[in-house]
Amino acid sequence: MPQIFHRSTNTLAKLSIFGGLFILAFVAWAVAEINRSSWNTGAFVEREQPVQFSHKHHVGDDGIDCRYCHTSVETSSSAGLPPTKTCMNCHSQIWNDSPYLEIVRESWRENRPIEWTRVHDLPDYVYFNHSIHVAKGVGCNTCHGPVHDMALVYQAKSLQMEWCLECHREPERFLRPKSEVFNMRWREENKTAEQLAEGRRLKEEYAVRHKAVMQSCSTCHR
Amino acid sequence: MHIKDTLPELYEIRRPLKAAEVQRRLAGKQGKEYWRSLEELADRPEFDELLHREFPRQAAVWDESVDRRSFLKLMGASLALAGLTTSCSYQPPEVVVPYVRQPEELVPGKPLFFATAMPRADGAVGLLVRSNEGRPTHIEGNPDHPTSGTPERPAEHRVAGLDIFAQASILSLYDPDRSQTVLDRGMIRDYTAFLAEIRSGLSGIGARQGAGLRFLTETITSPTAAGQMRDILRRFPAARWHVYEPAGAQNATAGASLAFGEPVNTVYRFDRADRVLSLDSDFLSAVGANIRHARDFINRRRVLEHLRDGQAAEAGREPMNRLYAVETTPTNTGAKADHRLPLKPSELIAFAAAVAAGVGAAGVSAPAGSVPHADKIPAIVKDLQAHRGRSIVIPGEYAPPVVHALAHAINAALGNAGQTVLYTEPIDANPVDQVQSLRELLTDIDAGQVEMLVIVGGNPVYTAPADFDFRSRLEKVRFRVHLSPHNDETSELCHWHIPESHYLETWSDARAHDGTVSIIQPLIQPLYKGRSVHEFLAAFSDRPERSGYDLVREYWQAQNIGGDFEQSWRRAVHDGFIPNTQARERTVSPRGDLGAQLAAAQTAQHGGLEVVFRPDPSVYDGRYANNGWLQELPKPLTKLTWDNAALVSPATARQLFNIAENAYTYRGTELEVPLVEVRLQGKAVRAPLVVQPGQPDGVVTVHLGYGRTQAGKVGSTTDSTTVGFNAYQIRTSGAMWYAAGAELAATGDVYPLSITQLHFNMEGRDIVRSNTLEEYVRNAGDTGREHEGGGHGGAPIESGEGHREIGGTGSHKNPGPHDSLYYTEQGGYPYPGYKWGMAIDTLACVGCNACVVACQSENNIPVVGKDQVARSREMHWIRVDAYFRGLAENPEGVHFMPVPCMHCEQAPCEPVCPVNATVHDADGTNNMVYNRCVGTRYCSNNCPYKVRRFNFLLYQDFETPSLKLMRNPDVTVRSRGVMEKCTYCIQRIQWAKIESEKEGRRVRDGEIQPACQASCPTEAIIFGDLNDSGSRVAKLQADRRNYALLAELGTRPRTTYLAAVRNPNPEIPSAPSTGDAHGETHG
Q: Is any Cβ of chain A less than 8 angstroms from the Cβ of B971?
């Protein structure tokens, strides 16, 4: 009976036994990477908005404080989205005939709200509270990235649970003085030994809870 | 292969036990033992199945048989779909919609609370309603309101409670079956067309001074509505106002008229009473002042602080009140009684007269003939006389007027009038004899004198006495208008139907039980363009299109409410009531001789089986029939859901049908009871028969409010579904609450019922504990604890002896702090921060179920339906178990025990979860992580308390738009295949923690109230931080009465119980040892 396979296939077969392990490892790695990629998380994807509103212009150029529009960031779970009234505070005076702002003026005239596209969307079983993070010295740009430099806002971080836990495990890496919370140009993360030492000091000063408390499921899931 | 083939026993028909066998099994089962059902007492094999499987018969998930091939196909398809959906789906893009002009005070993410009130016939209940971004989502009591709150306490200690009807009314607001359009002879029209037709109709009637114009209302306590009615009657002097309330306080009104010659209102001050005799009154749950009564009664019942500490009682102060309850059917009040005396309705008058004669009430002589419980009356009379001015004799809400008159006479003789029993002006704006009022209307209809009939609320076609034949007479009226929230049985027969707005959508006012005027403010614009009573009545005035706000505000502007009107009005709207508007107190004295009425009442009795009518504990008179929360709520004593039944005593069931126990038969997943026919005065209705321990022999209790045909999708009986039977069909004007001469006949049919009494049973271990006051005081010095830290110590509280001792060693040995079946680090986690815990006082729990509904509302808990309840799949996170004690015929007392998740420190559910979906947090609460749960159900299998609930099917309604508005945004809405359970209202804990952190302080005691605690009228549930030794919960857990449920398992539950204490009269021996008084009277 003739050999169907050539001798060299033996080597191939042996290789594939070991290769299988590599393939499995590769698949696992690929899945993990895809899962973390912005294709899955939606990070770095700029969202079209009904009004061509530029945070870069309003925050970066004009220097308007975050809290002028996001009024409840220090008091409530939600930072708050400005009502049309807030836009009209200025734009009834300046740029009041700009065609870009027709949608805003129309909303004001017709008493019909503007429907914005949500950029940062957590799953419904996650209950994030802005006010407590601000109160403990977590800066805006730590989570939201360089908003002062974004013409169209995108999600700068993955918003995955492992990313939340980075800070809930080691808050000293991300804390800053409360006076700098709304400073968009402050460093997003403490990296040097000096900065980390300050982070640890602030963690004490602001009575940031033990990591066991911060990592409890009930802290974020209800 | 069908499930029937693999598990044939599930489909086997089990025969009910015959009486003799049951008696044999029950023999010798007396005394201290506690039991939840007759099945448990008799130890039937079916009960074993229920005991050992938390979700009995759950294997029968497939309703249809599935063969191997289709099973594989399904599995393949679902695997493929699972792969697709998990890897290739994004969260759908969301839009965010800010306001154009944001209302002041509204902060997104922060709820607001508004004071309002729920109007009810017997008194409004003050509420605080939570509003999330403009949507009312949850209801709590108003701490400042005289009915639901505690205005007598200092502001920082005020609490509030509610009852199930107020709590569940939020679901009625969002009920998608509510009437949504004005209907003119079945056609959709608008309101202006209605106004036009009324105007033209009134122009003819007006010319005749209103002759032919009739109004039929429910009991009205709203001053504004009463003012409007008076104005209408002034405009049309010949018009008439009729009132009919199917389950109102008519007998109390008639009784007051009989006693005093005028219909005064009675206010009972349980906070001043040391001895209470209830003459068939269910004052702990009867709608009206129930919340206030329960709180005051229980506060007077709490064993005084100094007794806890083992000191001698202070002279002259009773440590605990005492309740004697005479009753014709078991009620929550009877359950809390120290002496419960069941009797037939026909014997009630004789009993009341004997007590009246005993205390020397004016004009009452001892009744001739036999008196039930005659041996106990002297001791009761002696006890009452020893507490002159500090006792209350309260007549039953539905007892005949003469019993009310007798009670007034007794209270006068005991010097209670003006002390514990106050008389005031009536709160009912038109306190007439309502049955007579309705009868007059019908007589006039027959005489052709009624041209236009305006029915304002109510559903008289369904609720009117059967002998009135309201339906056919209504059709004789030429023009009929009906205002109601649903297009119901009455609307169907009316020319015009106007949708009535819910009280959370309207401006109105109403009087509370003591007369305090409560302002009702809307929380939301009417969802379906409904009209309030005020806006509707305005159609009959000369200014027909006025808003409810203007009408209410103008009414009060015309009254003098003190100071600057604008300021007082704003304050009243903010507080929810107008201060100092209690009904004026009256000093009245009984008119002497009741002999004639007594004689008449006594001769009216005749034999046969007697019938007791009661409004249903869950759906009341039928108005809440379309409320799924209330339908699915297990009724306090029968634990029946979705149905009503004919309740009889075990002896009567045996005598009439030769069956005993609850005569349950299981077939497949269903539990079936015999269907019997209740015949009364030529009318008959078919009803399922339920054997109720404690029911007097020879008495059938039927509850009103079921068997509706036009209630809506939830509560209607249709061709395919039956939701109870209509007891109104046998209720006649001569016997509205008690009737004699009934018959019960077997039909041979069976009927499936969903009763939760047997669900989630914890076996006969040491579960309920109680003691008498006497022994409690005697043991006061003995505070020795056998083991520190391990649940209950050697507290001198007797426990029910489990009838299955484990391994014969007894279940009372307590584990030490480190004894546990479950792995623990040495010493366990120290919980340095907060240590949340809960104490539940079984002395205080009156079994009202308010916590169950509050929890359902707060935590977005779905309704599962009758069929699923039958399979033990109800989703309530907290259940109230009722434990009977003593004899089946006359249980000594019922103990209510609310059971939420115990949050064990060594939680048995945690180690068995393969995906870590249930874990502890750093404060020691047991969390349920829904997004991790894969639905193995191992956790619930391993839970000794059986408090975990599994979403077997997609119970949550994700489709109906109005129900989405109702949900609490702070709690995840669970989907199919997920386990869930009590979280201690983790959302409220986190909220308080965040707020306190921001202010740089610890959470204050009392700052966190889980929904169950916030709704509890008697403060039976207390939550707090166990690390704070000054907190209420820490003090309660240090109390002598404290014990942990199933402590011997070493689970170290954070929720513990306080044993009940009862205060029986030592001069009245307890029932089991004397034999039963029952036997003497009924042979």
A: yes
Looking up tokens 């005489």, which residue turns up? B447
Q: Which residues pair with B154 in a beta bridge?
A: none
Is the predicted pLDDT of residue B793 greater than 50, yes or no?
no
Greater confidence (B62 vs B945) lies with B945
A118/B986 CB distance under 8 A: no
SS (H, E, C) B900-921: CCCCCCCCCCCCCCCCCCEEEC
Among B98, B931, B994, beta carbon nearest to A113: B98
* Cα dihedral value B36, B39, B45, B47, nearest 10: -30
Single pTM value for the model: 0.88
Q: Which residues of B touch A42 (CB under 8 A)?
A: 90-91
Chain B residues with CB-CB distance to A127 below 8 A:
970, 987, 990
Tokens 């209801």 correspond to B139
Secondary structure (DSSP) of B1005-1064: TTS---HHHHH-TT--EEEEETT-TTSHHHHHHTSTTEE-TTGGG----SEEEE-EEE--
Structural contact between residues B705 and B616, judged by C-beta atoms closer than 8 angstroms? yes
Work out the percent of chain B whose per-residue pLDDT is above 70: 82
Yes or no, beta carbons of A219 and B990 under 8 Å apart: yes
pLDDT at A13: 86
Tally Cβ neighbours within 10 Å of residue B63.
Answer: 10
Rounded to a whole number of angstroms, the CA Rg of chain B reads 29
- Residue B656 contacts by C-beta under 8 Å, 6 or more apart in sequence? B648, B744
Contact state of A123 with B994 under an 8 Å Cβ cutoff:
no
Of residues B93, B921, B998, nearest to A131 (C-beta)? B998
Does the distance separating the beta carbons of B929 and A85 come in below 8 Å? Answer: no
CB count, 10 Å around CB of B15? Answer: 7
Mean pLDDT of B863-883: 89
Q: Is B1081 helix (H, G, I), strand (E, B) or coil?
A: helix
**Residue with tokens 């808003």, as numbered in its chain:** B547
pLDDT in tens, B161-197: 999 999 999 999 999 999 999 999 989 999 999 999 9
Please tell me which of the candidates A113, A209, A217 has its beta carbon nearest to residue B919: A217
Between chains, do B997 and A107 touch, taking CB under 8 Å as contact?
no
Confidence of residue B537 (pLDDT cuts 50, 70, 90): very high
Instruction: State which residue of chain B sits closest to A39, comparing Cα positions.
Output: B90
From B997, which residue of chain A is nearest by alpha-carbon distance?
A: A132
User: d(Cα B987, Cα B895) in Å, to the nearest integer?
Assistant: 31
Check whether A55 has a pLDDT greater than 80: yes
Q: What is the DSSP letter of B769?
A: B
